[in-house]
Structure formats: structure tokens, C-alpha cells
Amino acid sequence: MGIGKGFWDELRPLARMEDLRSLRGKKLAIDLSYWLVQQQTAVKDQHVRKPHLRLTFYRVVKLVSKVGALPVFVVDGEPPALKDGVRMERFKRFCDVDEFSLPEFWTSEENCGSRNPVFEENVEDCVTLLELLGMPVLRAEGEAESLCAALNREGLVDACVSPDSDALVHGAKCVIKTLQLENKNKGPEVELYRAEDIEASMGLRREHLVALALLVGCDYAPEGVPGVGCASALRLLRCYEESEILDRLRAWGRGELSYKDEVEVEAVDNAAENRSRVSHCSKCGHPGNKKVHTRSGCQECSAASADNLTDCMPKPTDFHCSCPSCLEKAKNKTEKRLNDWWAKICHKMSTTPGFPDEEIISLFLDSEIETEEDISMYASDIDWSVPDVEELEIFLEDHLFWDPLYVRQKILPLLTHFYLTELASAPTGSSSKPLLLGAYAPLCIQRIKIEQGEPLYRLAWKSMKEGVDGQQWLSLNLDATPAAEIKRKRTGELGETDPEEDELVELEPEENDFCFTTDENMEVVKAACPDLVARFDREQEEKHAARAKVNKRKKVVACDIKKRSILSYFKQEKQVQNTQEWDATGCGKSPVEELPSQTPKKEAVVCCPTGTESLIASLNSKSKTTRFSLVSPPPVPGTPRRKVSKSVARRLSLDKF
Q1: 260-303 confidence digits (pLDDT tens)
Q2: Does residue 198 fall inside a structural domain?
Q3: Are residues 414 and 519 both part of a single domain?
Q4: Which residue stretches does the UniProt record annotate as biased composition, category Basic residues (predicted)?
Q5: pTM
């Protein structure tokens, strides 16, 4: 909750909306209880086994390996007694029960301050999981947001992740209110607020925020001062410096100061005020009256008119007279309104029992980190280590029933991230380089992958230890294509390779012997494996040069081809003269033209192969309607073609013999 009555709404214009990439390399202090409550709300109606462990595991892996942030988890200590009422209200609201239906065990004074045992068990399970993942976990003496703010204030972390505005009151410099790792609603991934922006825009510093929490309410005093909202409280706080605001609240609460001590109240003589009143015209609003202005005109309207008219002009709806009498009257009204406001707010503070509560002020201003020894102690506790894979497999198998192979697959991005980070921080002159899990090392960079708008290196890993197979360790082959399969894809069905493809892509034999691949941040890989990055850049330049060479060659070949006419792409029918000759026997298979039966009187020319002159002469003498020739004339337009009749064919065969 934090500061109530719309404080986040007042800060909304100061919010900074950023993406997850802005958190790379940042140390984040995270309130673990806030994460658990958020996870329970997300999967409240789903049947998931121990969702607090499942979501914590996935969130930590993504936050570290993909985002690149370094989380520091803070666990609540013993809650203060002032927060018992708020905690009980939250419990009833979350469980949807009323106070009368609760058992006597929960409402008794000795057990009212104790935490929910189920929630405490979930917190301890998450602490064990985080320690196995190599994350630092700190235990606060009191509230977790107080320790988060102290870590941020002393520079041990870069920001606090908490939706509770109390972190700002405790002195945090940067508070991340919203952190969306799975941005399904396409909203802002990171919503953060900075104390310097609040001070520059609203003039509020830490003690101002403490006074604001006392006035409008907080987790320790939800009601605050009755009748005082956030706008009135901010108006009051802007009138005083940070060093004097809390002393003023103490004096007002004890009744030592009244509103007359805050403003200068002048005695007003009502009789003199009535005597000094000046009548005004009801039409134009200027000094005088309508009767006088009708008879002798209005000087104010005449001066304002362009034509120097003496008649009164109608006054606008938002007219305010600027005569000395009206200005004095408006000033007196403003002072009276201010006096009334001060009188009301001072009366409300003085009549609130126990205002201001010194215990609440101490809770906000006291810090768990006060000396240099405290700073060095917490700094030594903030350390990230490589996850314990074997113990993690046993823990998740017992609580979530996960297979060890599945745990290895999901924990692999976190392992490679820590390995590359350690490799990047190693001295440049060191000859021996460590191995991932004592067996694996990066082999090459396959390609660049774009994931959610961020370019990543697809890094291939190989086994450097004899008898250790990464594919068997993971029980799968992550994008690992055998060399025979790559060769088969690059060759055709008949075993013929494309010379242009061979020129563009050249895979070295050892690059196909990798065990698995991971997607890593480009900056981390550049710092950890500069030789692989240089080799990959060189190969990309060679590929681009070869591709440009092939494209240039194709362009030259295309220019050498003669341009064809557009008519060459369409079929054209041509009339070909039949000049085929018959053989010596006079037999042939060429068609013969004859006139149709319905036009017997019209003479037609029938084409046939050339033969002897005697045969042609005998045929012409015996036929009355058909004439034969040695050369086929061009076809007559509109003349149908059909086969020679059987009688003519029989006669030709008889005359031959």
C-alpha cells in the first residue's frame, strides 16, 4: 500500500517508462514477499503444483539470463506491531472472509502479530530455491522495503523493485513500481520513479514524504488525519523546508500553534468596508450605475470603444472589474479563504489523537545500515554464484516432480550466462580458460538471432572432455544439425551441388561437431570470446563479398542477352506450302482437297503429291469436278478441307496397275 489517498496518481506524470534492456547490468533489490503475493494472484484459480516455486524459478532464469539484471532478494523480518491491523485487513480481503468468521486463534492478541504459517513456508521454499540458483538472499530485521531502500540509498543496489511507495519514504533513490517480464498486454515493461525527479518537480524530500505519510495515511496509520487528502497535504508541505516540517507537525498536533501563527490576519472593519463600497453599472459592470451611464455615458466604455461611443457595452460573462475597490475586495476574500483553510487543517491535526506518532517517524527515518561496518557486511553478502545443478535437480524433483533432464534444459541459459560473465571478467593474459561444468566450451557463432527486437548471438558449444556428450547430458539436440544432413540439404537429389551456393556458404568440418546452442547477449559474447566474434565477422564479410560477386556476374550475363520483341512470346500461325513428292510407285498419304457435296458446280483445286504427267492427265480427263496439279496452291479462304473419297482412292490404286 504505502502512502494512501492517491499518492501514486500524483506521481504519475513523473513516471519513466523503459524497456527491459535498460536493466542490463543493474543490481535490483527485490521484496520477495511482493513477488509471492503477485504470483498467488496470477495463478489463484489454476491447479498448479507449488506455483510460488515454479514462477520464481522461471522469473529468476529470465531476469538473469535474458534481461541481464542481478537480483538481490530481501526477506521480511519481524513485522512491527503498528502494522497488525493492515495485515489482518489484507488477510481477510485475500481470503474473502469477515472478522467474525475467523477463529479465535487468529484474533487473539498473542497471535495477531504472527505471520501466516503457509505463507512463511512458501517463503522458506523460495529462499532455498534462490540459494540453489546462486542468488543472494538477505534477511531484514523489520520491513523488507526498509532494507531495500537502505541498500539503494547506500549505493549497494541500483533500484528497488516494490509497488509500495513506502520505499520512497524510507529513502530509496529509484523505485521500480512495475516490472513485466512477460509483457502479454503490450504495456510498459518497466515503470520507475526517481527521488530526484520528485524533488525537482514537487519540491518534496525524504522528511516531506514522512510528513505526507503521517497526514494522508500509510501502512502503520491507515487513516492518517481525517479529512486531509493528498492535495491539501501537498499544499501544506510546500510551505516549509525539510528541516522544519516535522517540528511544525509536532507543534500543531500538541496545539501549540494555531492558524493565526501561520498567516497574518488583519482586523477588518465591516462598517468601513460597507462605507467604501462603490456601486457598479448592471450593464457594463464599471463603477457608477445604469441611470447615470444612460444620461451621461460611461468613461470606461468610451475609452475601450474604437468609435469613442459613450453608450455602455454589455459586460462579458467572465468580467472582473479592475477598480481599486473591487481589487481590495478580491484580496480580502482570498485572505479569508486562506485563513479558513489554515484554521480547518490545524484544527484537524490538533484533534487527531496521538498525532504525529513518533514511533512511525522512527520507523521511517531509522535505517538498518548506519555505519561503515554495516555497509561492508551487506556488500560482502551480495554475491552471485553458479547454480548447484545436482542439488537443484533433487530439490525440484521432490517439490515439482520435474525430471532432471528437464531441469538441465531450463537451467542451461543461466549456466552459460554465468560462465560467459566469468570468462569476460578473467584477466586478458590468462592462458587457461575455465570450462562450462568442467566439460564444455564455446565453439563458434552460428548466426545472429533477433528476439523481441534485440539481436543475439546463436553460440554453439562443444565438449572438451573425452567421454562427455552434451546431447546426452541434455537429452536433446538444440538446433544441432549433423554434417551429413547439412551436406544432403546443400546437394540436389542427384548429388549435384550448386556452385553458387558453395561459393556463398562454406562450413568447416569441426563446426558441425557442436553439442548444443544457446542465444547470448552480443556484448557479453564480445567481452568473453573476442576471437569468435572476429572470426564470425570475417566470415560474414567473405559471404557478403561472394554474394556481391555472384550478383554482379548475374547482372553482366543479363546485360549480354539480346532483348526480345514482345511478339516473340506469342504463337504465330504460318502458311506452309506442301511440296512433298510421291515415291516411284505413286503412293502417298497426303490429304486431297475436294469441294463439298452441296456445291458440285464449283470447281476446286485438290492438292496431292507430284506423280507422273500421264497419271495426272488421265485423272483430269476422267474427273469432271476435280482438277489435279503437281504443286499445291495456297488454300482458298473459306474452303473447307476434308479427306479424299473412297471411290477416288480406289480408282487411283487400279489405274496404277
Answers
A1: 666 554 444 444 455 456 777 877 777 777 777 776 777 777 66
A2: no
A3: yes
A4: 640-649
A5: 0.71
